[in-house]
Write a structure and sequence with these properties.
Number of helices of chain B: 7
Largest sheet of chain B: 6 strands, mixed
Distance between the termini of chain A: 37 Å
Distance between the termini of chain B: 24 Å
Oligomer: heterodimer
Shape of chain B: globular
Strand content of chain B: 15-25%
Number of strands of chain B: 10
Largest interface: A-B, 16 and 20 residues
Shape of chain A: globular
Number of strands of chain A: 0
Helix content of chain B: 25-40%
Strand order of the largest sheet of chain B: 6-7-8-3-9-10
Order of helices and strands of chain B: EEEHEEEHHHEHEHEEH
Order of helices and strands of chain A: HHHHHHHHHHH
Largest sheet of chain A: none
Structural class of chain B: alpha/beta
């Protein structure tokens, strides 16, 4: 009897903290995530308001908010966001399509792999920003070099991701297709495509992230609109609040674009047996 | 009739996996292939399934030579190999998508009922246990109505209770379609529970060594004297097959012992 009691007491003591953590709802977890930035922002606001800090180079949240509001109210912000989004969208579309096509071809046709893969790997080793001067010489300073630079940045992760996904398709599942005498085309559609989808979507997300990285570089090399232009303008006219407003806009736009991509593609990989729900 | 004539398989690295296999299996017979590891059991099954090509010799099903995957031959792998992106029902219907939807659905539903998984039709494979997954994989092979069904150690990863349950499901499906069945196993009890004939193979290179005929009625009681006698005979044949011996002696398959 006494043994049972001891065991159950022990089990109860261990289970209690675990239950307390899991009991935190999703809203509570969200609030916990917001706590740190809010405390820091509030602290800085108070420090500037009480004169402890000047806030000249790092303006308090209220001034950044005001800068954002002015930009949004005048419609200027939307012009810049739109310009940036169009560049990323075009560059992503070109780079991702080229990456998927090249990855598929080199992974499925060995002669093409032997022909192209070494050169592509060598080009991948070149930091993408090194292309900027060449692209400006080739394409001028308007939209083309910017879209080209973003496309180059998106291409490589997608190419590597797709080629790797196809190369690592489970031979055992391919044999299931062979046993049921699927044609080459049916095998590609019914086994290879679903099998490579998760890794492909992950590489597209990486590619989109890099697209936003390169759009800043592209817009810094000379643009009359775009969030990158806002950054450069803020630096040249010494407006840190505008720089921070542009940075916040980048974060929001980038996160939103990623969320849209995930929302569009997650129904395709609903079957995946991942640890996401248990972690 | 599945007939195999002087079949041999040497892999590219020089490994002689199979040498001089001759085997005739009449329709609806259940044959168990048993033997130590490396005696070419799986290779033989892959050749009959048309997944690999033999180095010499020929395989024919009712007179038609088998040179690649054949519509009359089904294979259940050692692992379930279900497609994780398809529901249980879609996995079962994977090989019969050429049929009209109505007929396909009927066959899938029927096969799932036969293996006792009707209520799991809409779930993902990952939500099933190992034994349930292997039942789905057996149902997938059966819905295509194969004339020959090959099973490659299909129950080796399962516990004894699940295995016994699956033997029952397998025999129920077999009664219905009555295909020729070749089952590779390393479990003597499994051979005694299922087979009409057990063929013992010997390794390096893989050859057919001995045949034990099992004429008992089904369902079989593993504790019955006939089953126990059969188990002893197979065990001694297995023991014999693993002893080194003059390789030139032709394998005796035609005669063999019987009860």
């Amino acid at each position: 009897m006494s043994l049972t009691t001891v065991l159950s007491d022990d089990a109860g003591a261990k289970a209690a903290p675990a239950r307390r953590f899991t009991a935190l709802g999703s809203s509570a977890r969200l609030a916990l995530g917001l706590l740190l930035p809010l405390v820091l922002a509030l602290g800085w606001e108070i420090a500037v308001a009480t004169g402890l800090a000047s806030g000249r180079l790092l303006p308090p949240p209220s001034r950044i908010g005001a800068a954002l509001w002015t930009l949004a109210a005048s419609g200027e912000l939307w012009t810049h966001v739109e310009a940036t989004l169009i560049r990323v969208g075009l560059g992503f579309a070109f780079g991702a399509s080229a990456g998927i096509l090249a990855g598929t071809l080199t992974a499925t046709l060995p002669p093409l792999r032997w022909l192209f893969d070494p050169s592509l790997q060598a080009l991948r080793a070149v930091p993408s920003l090194a292309w900027v001067p060449l692209f400006i010489l080739w394409f001028g300073i308007l939209e083309t070099p910017k879209v080209a630079l973003i496309a180059v940045g998106v291409f490589f992760p997608v190419y590597i991701g797709v080629a790797g996904a196809i190369a690592s398709v489970d031979r055992k599942l391919v044999e299931v297709g062979r046993i049921f005498r699927l044609s080459k085309l049916a095998l590609a559609r019914r086994i290879l495509l679903p099998a490579v989808l998760p890794a492909t979507l992950t590489s597209l997300r990486t590619g989109l992230g890099l697209g936003f990285l390169f759009v800043v570089a592209a817009e810094l090399m000379g643009a009359s609109e775009g969030l990158g232009y806002l950054l450069l303008d803020g630096q040249q006219f010494s407006k840190p609040d505008q720089i921070l407003a542009a940075i916040i806009s980048f974060a929001v736009v980038g996160k939103a674009a990623d969320a849209v991509l995930v929302a569009l593609t997650s129904p395709l990989v609903r079957w995946q047996d991942t640890a996401r729900e248990t972690l | 009739m599945l007939s195999i004539q002087s079949l041999s398989k040497t892999y590219a690295d020089g490994t002689r996996a199979l040498d001089g296999i001759d085997l005739e299996v009449p329709n609806a017979e259940i044959v168990a292939l048993i033997g130590g590891s490396g005696c070419g059991k799986t290779t033989l099954l892959r050749l009959i399934a048309g997944l690999d090509r033999p180095s010499t010799g020929r395989i024919a099903l009712d007179g038609e030579p088998i040179t690649g995957p054949h519509s009359g031959v089904g294979l259940v792998f050692q692992e379930p190999r279900l497609l994780p992106w398809l529901s249980v029902a879609d996995n079962v219907g994977f090989g019969i998508d050429y049929l009209p939807k109505r007929e396909r659905d009927d066959r899938v539903t029927h096969a799932l009922e036969r293996v006792g998984l009707a209520e799991h039709a809409g779930r993902w494979p990952r939500e099933l246990s190992g034994g349930q997954q292997q039942r789905v994989s057996i149902a997938r092979a059966f819905v295509a109505n194969p004339r020959v069904l090959l099973l490659d150690e299909p129950f080796s990863a399962l516990d004894a209770f699940t295995r016994k349950d699956l033997h029952r499901h397998l025999l129920a499906l077999w009664e219905e379609v009555r295909p020729t069945v070749l089952i590779v196993t390393h479990d003597v009890a499994e051979a005694v529970a299922l087979a009409d004939r057990t063929i013992v193979m010997r390794p390096r290179p893989g050859r057919l060594d001995d045949t034990v005929v099992l004429p008992m009625r089904r369902p079989r009681d593993p504790a019955a004297p006939t089953s126990e006698a059969a188990t002893r005979t197979i065990l001694s044949a297995l023991d014999h097959s693993l002893r080194p011996r003059d390789g030139s002696r032709p394998p005796q398959v035609a005669g063999g012992s019987s009860f």
